[in-house]
Amino acid sequence: MEQRIGSSSQPLEGAGFDPAFVPGLTAPAVSSDAPEDTKSRDAEPEDATAEAAEPEKSSAEKADVEKADVEKAEAGEAEAEQAVAEDDDAEEADDDESDGPVFEASDRRAEIVADEKGVRLRLDDQSCEFRWDEIGAVETETPRFGKRFTITVHTPDRRWYPIEIEAAARSRFAEWETQLDAVLDAYFEDGDEDADDESAEVDEAALAEAEAEVRKD
Question: What is the pTM of this model?
Answer without folding.
Answer: 0.45
